[in-house]
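Notes taken during the Thursday session

The instructor put the following on the board and asked us to keep it in front of us for the whole hour. The protein is Probable peptidoglycan glycosyltransferase FtsW. We were told not to look anything up and to reason only from what is written here. First, the residues (420 in total):
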Amino acid sequence: MLSDGVDYMLKNVLKSYDYSIVIVYILLCFFGLVMIYSSSIVWAVQQLDPPRPSDYFYQRQKIHIILSFIAFFFAAIFPYKLFQNKKVLAFIMLGSLISLSALFLFGQVYNNAQSWFQVGARSIQPSEFAKLGIIIYLAAVYGKKQSYINDFNKGVVPPLLYLLLVCFLVMVQPDFGTAAIIFMIGAFMIICSGMNIKSLAKLFLLGVTLILLISPFILMNKDEIFSEERLGRVEGFLDPFSDVQDDGYHLVNSYFAIGLGGLTGKGLGESTQKLGFLPEPHTDFIIAIISEELGIFGVGFVILSLGFIVLRGIRISTKCKDPFGSLLAIGISSMIGIQSFINLGGASGLIPITGVPLPFISYGGSSLLLLSLSLGLLVNVSCFTNYERRYKEKKDLPAAEEGQNQKFYTISGNGRMMNR
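Then, after some discussion, the predicted structure tokens were revealed:
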């Protein structure tokens, strides 16, 4: 009877996973791997010093995908409520602050930003993992503060201070794109946390006040903050064809790639813009190569797949009765949606270029690992939400099976094992 109960429990748990998200995630990762190989062949041979084999980025991304699949599986089966534990939260908070601060002593500079740790032949970007740390922290804090969430001094200000501190440490690297993403994720989670309009209005006024207070600092350091390179990105965005060889070079070549693709594309591997014309074709501008080679169908697949994950995550957040799980789903969905919009908007000229990778598609280990962990957590929340609903609806369980079911339910619901 005990083994029957375990079998029943496992079958119901396996049935509770959202396999539609898993399938789309796997498809995006392998589609990205193919496009990374296609877009990076020339870049690896001609642009790297010393030159690398044509499949250099492809082989490295394969390793990234394997490690990310392992991380996704772990996040999908690990009871997500254990992240509410005070010791776990303290570890996440201190880990984020220490790693971001250590960059100023041990970080490596790439593209004018000191944002990476070099570990052997590979690099790690702590600010990527700070995104997930912020999501877990805000979800846990606001999940527990529901009874007094509109107490401004006690329920609103402390989490906000931590969010601003993380954004500041990322911004001074300097990495304004990632700092903006972290801030927008936090803002979206705060709006969805359950605060009333009065508290949100106070928060808005506090933000305006902070901007006014730091304005003198910005003016005194305007030459460093608004550097020639950053202003050039804005000018290139506003009128890229006014300086095709400099400020508008990236965006104009992205336009050419998108335009050359047309409806059906030139064919996989047939891009001409990746032959040294379009910088970073396997990272920031990979969507332009997808458009050139696969046309609107390739771009449509990427946008629809990412949109499905975002909308599915929002749906999961509305179904989840646990405030922590609901806010986790909101934070993860907003992160993927915001990052996708910034990358696609930059490549298409809707917003200035920021150097943000396209989720699950662009080359990069830190980004893919973070997104896989996050998506695993989203599937985890969905699984336990569906399992809880099915368990409560089931009224005629055999005694032994019900006992096993209750043990698993208790782990997922309270984060600890309890005997009936």
